Structures are given as C-alpha cells and as structure tokens.
Prior knowledge:
The complex is a heterodimer of chains A (503) and B (479). With 503 residues, chain A is an alpha/beta fold. Chain A is built from 22 helices and 13 strands. Chain A has a five-stranded parallel β-sheet, sandwiched between helices. In chain A, strands 6-5-7-8 form a four-stranded parallel β-sheet. In chain A, α16 (332-348) runs parallel beside α22 and α17 (363-375) runs parallel beside α18. The longest helix of chain A is centred in the C-terminal third of the chain and has 24 residues, at 470-493. Chain B is α/β, with parallel strands linked by helices and 479 residues long. Helix content of chain B is 44%, strand content 13%. Chain B contains 20 helices and 14 strands. The longest helix of chain B has 29 residues, at 317-345. Chains A and B meet through α2, α3, β1, α6 and β3 of A and α3, α4, β3, α5 and α6 of B.
Amino acid sequence: MKIMDHVELYKSEDYKELFENKKQFECPYSEEEVKKIEEYTKTEEYKEKNFARKALTINPAKACQPLGALLCALGFKDTLPFVQGSQGCVAYFRSHLSRHFKEPVPAVSTSMTEDAAVFGGLSNMIEGLENAYALYKPKMFAISTTCMTEVIGDDLNAFIKKAKQQGVIPKGIPTPYANTPSFTGSHINGYDVMLRGILNYMTTGLKASQTERINIIPGFDTYSGNYREIKRLLRLMDVPYILLADISDSLDAPNYGDYEMYSGGTPLGDVVDSINSTATVALQKYSTIKTGELIKEVWRQPFVNVPYPVGIKNTDLFLDVISQLSGKPIPDEIIEERGRVVDAMIDSYAYIHGKRFALIGDPDLLLGLISFILELGGIPVHIVCTNGDEDFEKEAYALLKTEPLFGSEGKVYIKKDMWHLRSLLFTEPVDLLIGNSYCKALWKDTGIPLIRVGFPIFDRHHMHRYPIIGYAGALNLLTLMVNTVLDELDRQTKDSPSFDVIR
Amino acid sequence: MPRIIEQDTEKLIEEVLEIYPEKTRKERRKHLISNDPECTTSTCQLKSNVKSRPGVMTSRGCAYAGSKGVVWGPIKDMVHISHGPVGCGQYSWWSRRNYYNGITGINAFGTMHITSDFQENDIVFGGDKKLEQLCREIKEMFPLAKGISIQCECPVGLIGDDIESVARKMTKELGIPVIPVRCEGFRGISQSLGHHIANDSIRDWVLGKVKGILDKETPYDVLILGDYNIGGEAWASRKILEEMGLRVIAQIPGDCTLNELTNMPRPKLILVHCYRSTNYIARYLEENYGIPWMEYNFFGPTKIYESMRKIAKRFDEKIMEQTEKVIEKYKPIMDEVIEKYRPRLEGKKVMLYVGGLRPRHIVGAYEDLGMTVIATGYEFGHRDDYERTYPEMPKNSLIYDDPSHYELEVFAEKLKPDLVGSGIKEKYVYHKMGVPFRQMHSWDYSGPYHGFDGFPVFARDMDMAVNNPSWKLIRRKAK
C-alpha cells in the first residue's frame, strides 16, 4: 500500500485540479500581474524603496529580550525561569526554544490578564511563586518580565520582597530578577541583563577572595556543542573554570527513560564563588555588556572580552588568553588538533576561495563568521545584522579591513532585515548565504545555497549539538561550507561532463 | 470499542492534586473529572474557560495567538501586522503549517513576519503615526496585498493607541481594507478570546464592508469554516465535499483569500470544522443571514462516513446517492489501511492534550485503529466543548481542562499510555520519559490527517510512533 503524505499528495492530478477550481472563488490577480510584480521586486528600483522603509520591519533576524533571559536562566542548576507577565509570551518562548533544541523547556509565567493591567501584578507574583515552588521545587527563581509588566510598571523588587514576607516561598531562596522589556534591544540583551541579575544577586555582600578558577561566559549561544567544546578545551588545558549559564545539559540532556526537569546548568555554589575567580572571559561582546560592567566595576575582577572563537585566529586568541590568565600552557593535544584543522582548511580552500558570501545573524556570530571566511579566502559581501548597533558596524568594518584582498567588498547593514537582504541578493548576487532557518525563504526565492548557522535552526536536526567554536568547530563549519558548495556543484553539473566523482 | 475502561480515575485525580497549595488545589479539582458519557447535569461536568493559576506552567497562549496565529494569520492575500514589539511575531512566524498556494511576498504573505517592531519611543509617544506610515510602506512593498490586518500585541492596548482611527484613515487612503484587531495578549485567559475577537473583527470590518465577487449561486454551495489547512488538510476535506457534488465557495481561513471571506454570507450551508474558534461567526451568519451551520468530523473512516451522510441529508437525493458512491469508492482503501495497521496498534492506550476540536474529534480515528483514548482535554475549551466530549469518551476515562505541566507528567506516569498526542511544549518531555509521542497541533510536520487522504497518513504516523525500535534503546541510569 502506497501512502502519500503532504509532500506528494498535493502534486497529484486530483489536487492540481482542485487548486485550479478553487481559484474561481479566490479572485486572484492574473498570472501576468503576479509575474510582473515578482520581477519588479528583484530590481534596483524596488531595492531603493525597500531600503527607504522607516516604519515597516519584514522578516527580522531577532527575537525579544525575555527569550534571551529565559535561555540564560536555563543555564543554572535547579533554576526555574519565572516570567512576570502574560502567559502567551512564555508559551511562545518555550515553543521557540523547543523547536530549536528538540528538548523540553520548563518555564512559568504569572498569567497576568486585564485585571493585572489595572491593579498591577502583585497578587499574580505572590500566587505564582507559591504555586511554582510547590510544584517544581526550584532552588532558584530567575525572574524576568514581558512588555506588559514593563508598560504598567510593576516593581519587581518590592513584589518579590512582599512574597517572601508573606512566606509563600522560603526567605533564603535566591530570586534574582531582570527587567526585560521587549521594546528595547533584543534577545542578546535579555540574556545579558538576566545574567547580570543572577550574578549580582548571588554575590551581593560577598567579598572577593582569590581562587584559581576562571569564569567563562559564552554569551547568547544556542549551540549546546559549543558549551561542551569550551569545557573540553579547558579540561585539556587543566584549567579550573566556572562555565556560567551552562545550558549544555539542560538543553541537551541524555535520555534515561525519565524526565528530569533540572537536568543541568551551572551549580549555584559555583555562581556564588564566581566572584572569587581570577578573571572572567566572555566569548561574546554584544550579549555581555551589562554583565561585564558588573564584573569590572562591582566585583573589580578582570573581565576579558575575546572575539567569539569561530575560526582559527579567534580560537588561538581565546586559548592564548586562557593560557595567560591561568599560567597553563596549551597542550600538545590541542596544538595537534589545530594542525589537523588547518590541514583540512588547506585541503578545501579551493572551493571557498573567492566565493562571495551573504551573512545574517547576531553581532558576535557575524564577527566570528567574517573572521573565518576571511581565513579561507572567501569574500563577505552582504553582512546584515538586525540587532546590530553602530559599535558593531565599526567593529565589522575594522575586521574586514584586516584582509583587504577579501574584505574590501563587504558592506555592513545594521538594523536591517531579511527583506532588505532579499533585495541585495537579487541586485548583487552572491554564491553562498549563511543564516538561520528562516533564510530558507531567501534560498527559495534566489536559489543561493543556504548554510544554516545561528538561531533558530528548526528545519535541520542536531546542528546545535556540533560546536562551531574552537578548532573542532572550525572543522565542523568548514565541512558544512565546503560540502554545501560541493552539493551545489553536483546540482549544477549533473547534466554536464563536469559531473565529477572526485573533487 | 471499550466504552468503559477499568481505571480508578477519581483516586488518580486526588493523588495528583496533593502537592498543590490549598487555594490552587481547590481550584484545580474542578478541572479534572472521571468521565461519565451520559453526563447531563452540572455535577458530572468540569469547570473550564477560567484563568490559569499563576506559576503552574500552563500550555495556554494568549489572545494574539488566537487571532494572528490562528484565525487571521492564514488569510493568505492579506498582510497581517504583528503590531507591537518584535517577539510575538517572531515566535508565531511560519510555525503553524497553514498551507497555501501562492507566491510568498508577492501575492501571498502567510509565512512572513511583518511587524512594527515597537521601540521605547513608540511606547512613550504612541505608535499610531508609525502604524500609518507602516501601512503605506506595506502598500509600496507589496502592491498585490488585498488588505491589511493590525494584530495588536500587549502594549498597544496599554498605551491607549487608537488603531481604529488609523485603520479607517488608511482604508480610505490606500484603497484596500485595513482591519484593526484588538487581540492584545493580556485580554482574556487563553487563545480563545483571540478567536472571538478575530471573528468579531471579520463581522465588523469585512462582512457588508468589503465587496467581493461570486459569479453565481447554486443550491449546492457550502462553506468550510474553521479549517486551518494544517498540512493541507482542508484541501483533503474539500476534495470529499466536491466529490459528493457540493460546491465549496470559501475555505476559511486555511488557504483563504479576502474574497472568500466576503463569500461568507452566500452558502446554503456552513460546515464548521473547529467549532471553538469559529462558532461566533457561524452563529452570527445564522442569525443575520439565516444560513444554517453544522459541525462535521472527517477524522477516521467511521466519523467520515457518518459526517458525509449527515451533510448529504441536508441536500437532495442526488447528493445522497453520490455520497454513497464516494463512500463505496473509498471504503476498500480505508479497510486496507485498518487491516494493515490495526493489528499493530490494537489495544494501545492514548492520552491526548490538545486544543480546538481535536481532543474529541480524533478519538474516533484512534478507535478505528483499535486504540483507546484513556484521557483527553483542552487547552482553552469551554463548557460546550466538554459537553461534546463526554459522549465520545469511554466511561472512567480522565478528562482534564488546562492541566499544568506537572499534572500531565503525573498522569502519564500513572496511566502509562502507549502514545501521547499533544504539542511541541510537551513533546520532548515524553521523549525523555520514553513514551511515544505525536504532536497533534501541527501533525508533527506530517499530514494531512483528515479526510480519506489523511487517514492513511494518520495510521502510518501513529504506527511509526508506537512501534519505532529506537524506544527500546533507552537504558535507565543506575540510581
């Protein structure tokens, strides 16, 4: 028995006829008209109008602050992300993260509705904490907000205090909080303020006493493989560390046949102790600004921002910094690994050299990718960053200048979206596109092969389990890039003599 | 089918509630019952459509999700603005599998995220000016858009913007309907109010206001209402209706155009698929245009035959005869599907937790495969949904309303279902527990599941979930 699902069914004659017949009720534009507009959207003239948009955002590559706060909260052991605000938001965050990680995402809201809009959300907060504590027994609540809460101006600090006074949750339970309005910044800022909130809360009043550990802050990073890679490298170097907001086991947990709600995360004791570490190294810059201020100004601890360690040079830099801070040499095993990856890059460069790239994503990721593409002789052409600011723009141009041969064509577009990018891809085509799953719409329209890197990746499985940072990550990215090129080459040559088996 | 199951549901309910603080325990008690299929009095009914308790990890969404995500979003030739901050539109972007034919970004806009991306300034000074400008830019970017809807997010209602004025002004200026929808997420207690608000906005801003085209009327004109065409399933239903000799003059809202919306007052009969999300407009059409409506269920052959005959009866001999011919045509295929899959699924226990119509509508399809639904419930059902559910479910089965994450887990542990059908937020919890699972909102990226074309896919997928060998690889960790 042959079973046809949606993939084949709607291509069958029955359905083709059904679709054709349905048109009489649809009142559609004529095919010529549609074709005309379709072609028009590919023109320079359309691009100009597109770039003149002031109010309209189309297919942006950014999410809102509370999502970032949630991701950060999930990186702490026994911690329940607790959102003061509308319940729909939390339903969305949980779905969005689950679709990317293919993992359960526990989080609660205080289900604020119209009455809370009028009277404030105090009673929601109190009942919410009481219920959540009874049901889910967290050892920490990481509290963030939604835009509703921010617009009506709930006083989180006072509310939490009141809840503790009323005894609905134990007085001693940590309740760090962050204001995360969706109408400022993006998910990367939400991550930042939640992390700052947690670190600040857990270390307030503590005095720093030096330990040998190094704190690592990954930044808003949705590759569970990256967290494991950081830990692997530090273990190989024998460097004691505290990986803050470690989501690797909470969002990539082993299957043992039962569900454990708090399956991973940075132990809370380590969070408290993080104030005592030798230094903090942040692997992203734009998602750690506020946290960095806390560490520098309040903790008085050295805070080192390294570029997101994508590619060889950035990984070298990361390891050098760790080596300097810890006094530990980089072991042979890592040096050999580097050698193998460089060897692989040299074996593959021919397929990347001179290839023109369009990139869209978060600022730190883009800087990492630009650096790696330049190492391979690729040409970054369109660099679109919906949530990028002027600092990022400057930094990206400075990076492009370091390799004039390959970087001089690159143009950086901050606060622009995928619809802007669509125009760019039609008016100045490139060979490869790097971005998240939503970029598949651009692939469909332009035919430019898409390399899925970033967040979210919904339509390919397990990519987040493979690191893109470190030397191992460079090899993964290289493999992904070169094989995308080769797949495309096969498609292009399949009806020609150039259809080679050895490449 | 076992119409009575051996299961001490009452005891189970008491056990699951033990953990709650008293106030919440009392409240939650009213939302859980052991089913009595003959239930007619309030004592055997559960309570529904009330606020979720704060902090309990509900699966419910919001009014915006109900309007933009469910009712308006699939209207394909209009641009739907997620009006407010960036998040809501981002998380509901291209996620519901409302299939449509058309060229996205040119004459169809369903899988796009169009937003006003509110910034602090818009909150402080109001977003109306920006909204006007935005509508103009939509017209410029998407000249073939037939209309615009403004889907409000939380802040819009809180800062007191007058989007209705903007809508009226822009309708005039742009020459296409611009429709304001007050579906701010804080309104109501779930997606449900969003459906209602969306229905009302169709009533107030489309019907009688937007001129449509329908070349003629026939005695066999029907309208599919409340089918979201998830995985293309409205097409599978449409195919059956057309084979029966009926003319589907509009398919709302899955793969629907604005013109089809204007056809709403024109059919002889309205066929309601998702009663929960569209009964409001169906009742309005009945009261104001005298058009009758009826519910139907195209999940699984038993219910399909039953519904087809029920629909045919509303027409003439010719349709009734034709309907029997269609049943005759498909019955051997359906029997073959059952013959193949029933032996592999016979006696398996299913636990459902979904929304809309599914907690009751898909029960029959499972039963066709020899499976028993031992527990079911709604995210945002009302009393009338549950009244339609009791008779469909076996005696002593468990029925829950808006259960928390915690309750569902405990129920699954104690009831040991062989298959759970729920949503993305639940899916991976059950994977971790080693319980076969299918998403029954999105058909887990498969489908269609209704109609004659859908049932084989449904059977294949349920078998795949229950009998995949990978479940057997799970090894418990030594404690």
